[in-house]
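Q: Hi! New to this. If I give you a protein sequence and the SMILES for zinc ion, can you show me the bound structure?
A: Yes, paste them in.
Q: Okay, here:
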Amino acid sequence: MNTVEYSNTSHDENAHQEARHKLPAMLHGARQKCPNCGKGSIFTSFLKVAESCENCGQELHHERSDDAAPYFTIFVLGHLIVPLLLILETHIFPPLWTYLVIGIPLIITLTLLTLPRVKGAIIGLQWALQMHGFGPEEEISLTSPLDPELTGR
Ligand SMILES: [Zn+2]
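A: Thanks. Here is the predicted structure of the protein with zinc ion bound:
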């Protein structure tokens, strides 16, 4: 019988950090709720992230979802829409006007529905991974560009 021993070095190093579960945080974010409590709203408008949670006070302004939300939205919707278009064009042959009347509004609607949910899930993941200031307080040392040690004066 073989036994496998795993090193817990990385866990020991992070033992002082609180455990945050990724999936619940991402699901809270996908529901556009605070990744910490799941109750407060994560957005103040369509994609504008709140400074902090109105329910638990968790600071949310640390998020840096940047281009990840549009990237994953395009990734997910592209994998749904392109096969659908290929099936339509190879089996049903709809007239071109149906793409203008049904296809484009459908794609725009799906994008607008998906984008805030994906952004919320990314913020939830960043919170769970304690990225970008979501973690424990870090000592930030800002040095002035006029600092004598840096300028050599
Ligand atoms: Zn909260």
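A: The two ends are 67 Å apart (CA to CA). Let me know if you'd like me to explain how to read the tokens.
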